[in-house]
């Protein structure tokens, strides 16, 4: 009887072991309840998890950690502790091991579990790029692995882990200290910024994401031979669900979600489904069949310019249908997905929640947040913007916000030096318009008449502007400024500046300005002046053949005009455009990671018939793209930045140098 009992017990243990080992590790953690993690089996597996973790903090991928290890395998893993090869967050690696250790710690609060969990978190934070993305492997592995990786939801898994830590819920039983939580918050916010910046704009319309994006240009990038630059129906779904989870989303996040949902609706495929058929040799094969009742599908890969689905073999050649690729690739890869259905299911509930939040915000905004409301219909505090500025307190101790309702404000606006800390917030970029029509000959004040032609003049420091359009409607009559900025720490975001010659003048030696997500158009020298200015994610439109910039950078300024991740476009009649010419001899202008249209001349830069300026000025480019980017054909006196040189062009270096401690990172302002 005793022998029989031992045999039965042994058989049961073998059955449990075989059941455990039959499960996939990717699903293992989430398929067990809390009570299971108090069992001896859970503790034994936890020891495996600790053994597989490398000293750097991360784990390799695709390891079935629930499988029993021999003594020889354990010794081998101990010897590999200091090895840094193939450590990754891909396929759920590292984040799922951290979750397992957290569940163990809840049952057995042992220091070794906590230490390993926090080491894993440190690894994730260390692996993040400065731009907010994560590579597939860290330390970096050569090849496509260095791309920002959304593939198989790698970055989403990381962001979900960080979000759970920040929410301070009971999802993780292990709580980092406040210093680590703050690092986690910074990393999560940088990740969201990266997601927003990598959302692909198709003919000016935001769409979705690629499975991987270049870590420098942020553009869609190629991975394996059959994974070409494209829009991804699969990876984009989880990205949108992540964005929807943000409790208090910014307008940029809301726009990203709405745009992606519209793209999912546009690209869904109905009336077909994937079925497996049995071939004569007994093998299974995937085929596409017609079914009017089939649920929507989305292609894994779609063309960047028109969303057409495509398929690839290992030769990297695109095919129009799944039946045209080899049996091996047809059945060894997921070419269609239904994951966006979860986005479309969640979207109405999310939309309703956001509309409720916005309604509450709008009520609070009009009563409390905005000190002054301008409404030309008479329902605000003032009917004109200038009246509101004139009524603002001089040199205020706190920021004064002027909210401008939609309308065309035909007025010449000046923000004097004593009106510092003004925020001018439009109701919408397209419908809140400040316009005037002064120009050089109309002003008639002599050789300096240009500087009086402005529609808007900013002289007060720490000015912030958002969501409106400033234009000079004089037409092609010579110099006519739309915006004249002669103040320090001035920021414009989501604004448009419309004009012809001399549209935007940025002046003031030593002043720093920041233009983000803006649209600027003009003809000749339509961005000019001596201030240090960073233009980021802006669209620059040439309306005729001429010059974009005319910098007059002071001799001792380290930076002049810096354009990062901008898009250079042109009207149809503009085919011969220079990036810039030196208004003054020490002009500095740099274009980095910008997309340049074919209207940009091969030589790129002009010396304004000033040979000496070729040695005193500094004109440079770095890793730009497009037909207009022809570095080999640029004038010999311009520069292509080296990687070491490009690293110096950070927002902190450009805009924070010579800034007092109290004003550091002023460019992070949102209102």
From TrEMBL:
Task: Supply the name of the protein.
Answer: Pectinesterase
* Annotated organism of origin: Flavobacterium hiemivividum
Q: Give me the Gene Ontology terms describing cellular component.
A: cell outer membrane
Where do the Pectinesterase catalytic domain residues begin and end? 371-657
| Residue ranges the record marks as coiled coil | none
Give its E.C. classification number.
Answer: 3.1.1.11
Record: active site: 525
Q: What keywords tag this UniProt record?
A: Aspartyl esterase, Hydrolase, Lyase
């Amino acid at each position: 009887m005793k022998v029989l009992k031992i045999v039965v017990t042994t058989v049961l243990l073998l059955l449990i072991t075989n059941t455990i080992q039959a499960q996939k590790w990717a699903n293992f953690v989430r398929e067990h309840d809390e009570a299971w993690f108090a069992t001896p089996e859970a503790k034994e597996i936890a020891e495996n998890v600790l053994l597989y973790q490398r000293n750097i903090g991360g784990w390799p991928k695709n390891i079935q950690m629930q499988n029993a290890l021999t003594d020889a395998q354990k010794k081998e893993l101990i010897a590999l502790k200091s090895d840094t090869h193939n450590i990754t967050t891909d396929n759920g690696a590292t984040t799922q091991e951290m979750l397992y250790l957290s569940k163990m710690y809840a049952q057995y609060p042992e220091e070794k579990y906590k230490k390993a969990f926090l080491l894993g978190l440190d690894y994730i934070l260390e692996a993040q790029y400065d731009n907010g993305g994560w590579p597939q492997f860290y330390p970096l592995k050569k090849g496509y692995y260095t791309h920002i990786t959304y593939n198989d939801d790698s970055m989403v898994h990381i962001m979900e882990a960080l979000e759970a830590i920040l929410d301070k819920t009971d999802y993780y039983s292990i709580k980092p200290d406040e210093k680590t939580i703050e690092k986690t918050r910074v990393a999560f916010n940088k990740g969201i910024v990266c997601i927003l910046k990598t959302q692909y704009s198709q003919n000016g319309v935001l769409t979705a994401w690629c499975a991987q994006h270049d870590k420098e240009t942020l553009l869609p990038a190629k991975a394996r031979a059959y994974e070409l630059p494209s829009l991804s129906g699969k990876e984009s779904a989880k990205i949108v669900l992540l964005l929807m989870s943000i409790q208090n989303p910014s307008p940029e996040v809301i726009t990203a979600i709405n745009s992606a949902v519209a793209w999912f609706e546009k690209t869904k495929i109905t009336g077909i489904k994937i079925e497996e058929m049995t071939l004569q040799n007994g093998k299974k094969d995937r085929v596409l069949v017609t079914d009017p009742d089939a649920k929507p599908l989305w292609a894994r890969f779609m063309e960047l310019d028109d969303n057409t689905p495509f398929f690839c073999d290992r030769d990297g050649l695109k095919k129009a249908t799944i039946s045209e690729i080899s049996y091996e690739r047809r059945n060894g890869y997921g070419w269609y997905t239904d994951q966006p259905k979860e986005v479309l299911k969640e979207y109405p509930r999310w939309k309703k929640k956001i509309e409720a939040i916005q309604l509450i915000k709008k009520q609070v905004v009009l009563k409390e947040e905005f000190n002054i409301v301008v409404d030309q219909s008479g329902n605000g505090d003032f009917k004109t913007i200038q009246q509101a500025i004139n009524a603002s307190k001089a040199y205020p101790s706190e920021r004064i916000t002027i909210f401008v309702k939609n309308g065309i404000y035909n007025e010449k606006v000046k923000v004097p030096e004593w009106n510092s800390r003004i925020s001018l917030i439009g109701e919408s970029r397209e419908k809140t318009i400040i316009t005037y029509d002064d120009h050089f000959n109309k002003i008639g004040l002599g050789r300096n008449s240009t500087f009086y032609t402005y529609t808007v003049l900013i002289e007060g420091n720490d000015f912030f502007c958002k969501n409106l359009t400033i234009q000079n409607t004089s037409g092609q009559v010579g110099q006519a400024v739309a915006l004249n900025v002669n103040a320090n720490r001035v920021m414009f975001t989501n604004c448009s500046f419309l004009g012809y010659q001399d549209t935007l003048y940025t002046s003031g030696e030593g002043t720093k300005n920041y233009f983000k997500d803006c649209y600027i158009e003009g003809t000749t020298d339509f961005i000019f002046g001596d201030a240090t200015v960073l233009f980021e994610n802006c669209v620059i439109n040439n309306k005729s053949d001429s010059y974009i910039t005319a910098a007059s950078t002071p001799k001792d300024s380290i930076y002049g005009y810096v354009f990062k991740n901008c898009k250079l476009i042109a009207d149809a009649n503009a085919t011969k455009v220079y990036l810039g010419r030196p208004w003054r001899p020490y002009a500095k202008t740099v274009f980095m990671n910008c997309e340049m249209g074919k209207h940009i001349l091969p030589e790129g830069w002009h010396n304004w018939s000033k040979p000496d300026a070729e040695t005193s000025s500094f004109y440079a480019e770095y890793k730009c793209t497009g037909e207009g980017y022809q570095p080999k054909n640029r004038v010999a006196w311009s520069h292509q930045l080296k990687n070491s040189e490009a690293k110096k062009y950070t927002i902190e270096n450009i805009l924070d140098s010579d800034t007092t401690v109290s004003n550091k990172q002023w460019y992070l302002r949102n209102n």
